[in-house]
Amino acid sequence: MEKSEELVGVAEGVAVVPVAPPLRRTRPWPLGAALAIAVGVTAVLLLADTPLLNQPAVQAWRTVSLAITVQALPFLLLGTVLSGAINAFVPADLFTRVLPDRAALAVPVAGVAGAVLPGCECASVPVANSLIRRGVTPAAAFAFLLSAPAINPVVLTATAVAFPGDPAMVAARLIASLATAAVMGWLWLWLGKERWLRPALRHRHTGHEHGHSRWTEFRLGCQHDFLHAGGFLVFGAMAAATFNVTVPRSVLDTFSGSPWLSVLFLAALAVLLAVCSEADAFVAASLTGFSPTARLAFLVVGPMVDLKLIALQAGTFGRAFAWRFSTATTVVAVTASVLIGGALL
Predict the structure, then answer these.
(1) What is the pLDDT of residues 116-129, one digit of tens each?
(2) pTM for the whole thing?
(3) What is the 3-state secondary structure (H, E, C) of the chain?
(4) pLDDT tens across 180-234, in order?
C-alpha cells in the first residue's frame, strides 16, 4: 500500500487524516477599488491649502461631497450594525417564519415592514443584503430595501413639516412609494435572475457559524460591510457633487414650464442630487416652480434611485443587478408618481 495514494494512514493504531490546507479567502476587487477611492478622496479633501482647491467651484464641490458623505455615514453605520446583528444574533429561520410562505404575498408584507427602519437608503442596502443571506426571498428583501427609506416615520414626519397644511403630499408619497416597492418585488419574482446577484448571495446563509463567537461575527460583519459600502458611498457623493456644481440654476427653470418634462426632470434631478431621504422633502418644497406631481416624483424616486445608492447596490449585489434594478425602479417610480399624484394632488 503506497502512502501517497491513501487518504487515511494508520500510525501506532491511531487513524491519521491528512488535513487540507486552509482555503485562502480572497476579497472581491470592488472592495479594494472602494477603499482606494475613499482614501484618495479623503486625501483630496484634506489638501485645503493647494491653490487649485481654493478655486470657488472646487471648494463648492468639496463642500457638497463632504456634506453628502457626512450626512449619509451615520445611517450607513446604522445599517451595517443592524445587518451585523441580524447575521450574528437573529435565528436563521425567524424571517422565513414571519413572512408568508408565498413569495408573492411576502413582497407587500416586507414593503410595509420597511416602516420600522428609521434610516435612509444607505442603511437599507446592508440590511437587505443580510436578509437575503438569511434565507429571505430576494423579491421581499428588495421590496424592503425600496420602502424603508421612503415610508419610515422620520421621513413622513419630515415631509409633513416641509409641506405644512398639505397632508395629501404625505399620503401620496406613502402610497406611491409602497406601490413602487411592491411592483419591483413582483417584477423580480417574474423576471429576476439569480445570476445577476453576486455569487456569495446565491448560497443562503443559515445563521451563526459553529466555532465562532457571536460577538466576533458581529464585529467582523460590521467592519466588512461598512468598509465595503463606504467607498461606494464616497464615489456616489462625488458624482452628485459634480452635478451640483456644474449644472446652472437656469437649467432648472427651463424644464419647469412643461408638465411632462418637469416630472422627468425632477426624477432625474433626484437621482443626481442624492439627497438623504430625511432631508429631500425640504429640497422638494423649495422647488416651487414645479407642479406637485413633479415634486412627488422627486420624493419617490430619490430614496430608491440615486447615484450613491446605485454605487452601494453595485458594491453589495453586483453591477449586473444594480443597473437593471435601478433602471426598472426609476420607470416604476415615475409611473406611480404620475398616477398617484394625478389622483391625490
Answers:
(1) 765 566 778 887 88
(2) 0.68
(3) CCHHHCCCEEECCEEECCCCCCCCCCCCHHHHHHHHHHHHHHHHHHCCCCHHHHCHHHHHHHHHHHHHHHHHHHHHHHHHHHHHHHHHHCCCCHHHHHCCCCHHHHHHHHHHHHHHCCCCHHHHHHHHHHHHHCCCCHHHHHHHHHHHHHHCHHHHHHHHHHCCCCHHHHHHHHHHHHHHHHHHHHHHHHHCCHHHCCHHHHCCCCCCCCCCCHHHHHHHHHHHHHHHHHHHHHHHHHHHHHHHHHCCHHHHHHHCCCHHHHHHHHHHHHHHHCCCCCCHHHHHHHCCCCCHHHHHHHHHHCCCCCHHHHHHHHHHHCHHHHHHHHHHHHHHHHHHHHHHHHHHC
(4) 999 999 999 999 888 888 765 544 454 444 455 777 777 776 776 676 666 666 7
